[in-house]
Amino acid sequence: MVKTGKILAAAVIIGCFFIFPAGAQSAWTRADLQSIYMEHLRLEGYVPSIDVDGDILFKVSGDNFFIIIDENDLQFFQIYTGFSLGSVSAENAFIAANFSNRRSKVAKVAISSDGKVASITAELLLSSPLDFAPVFARSLSLMRNAENNFLTYLNGLE
Fold this sequence. Notes:
Elements lengths: L1 H18 L10 H14 L5 E2 L5 E5 L2 E6 L7 E9 L5 H14 L3 E5 L5 E9 L7 H25 L1
Antiparallel strand pairs: 1-2, 2-3, 3-4, 4-6, 5-6
Helix pairs in contact: 1-2, 3-4
């Protein structure tokens, strides 16, 4: 079943090359990008939706993740998640975020200016918006690794 899903996903992504030819890529709209990202997420078993900002919302293990749509920079691809830090001190959150950022690939942790929220993003530059598919799962994995680095170090500080 997994092989069939991956083959189908590859066929859909390759099919997008014919739907959106190279010359038309600079004219892609927000709706085009939403369609591409949502179809891939569905094929991977997620239940995506479009949020009020036009970005793609999906859940991973109960946590909200967003693919941020930037139709003005088709090479930029970003996945975002965030969570409340509760009663953690802002100083410790910043220290743990710096620790995680030094040890994590691609994904980075940021702390809100009030120290109450942590966000984790994976930011990639791609030749084409269609190039996100082969690196999507790895990006999510690297985000979880950054989160683990952050929380493990933070727990050692508290």
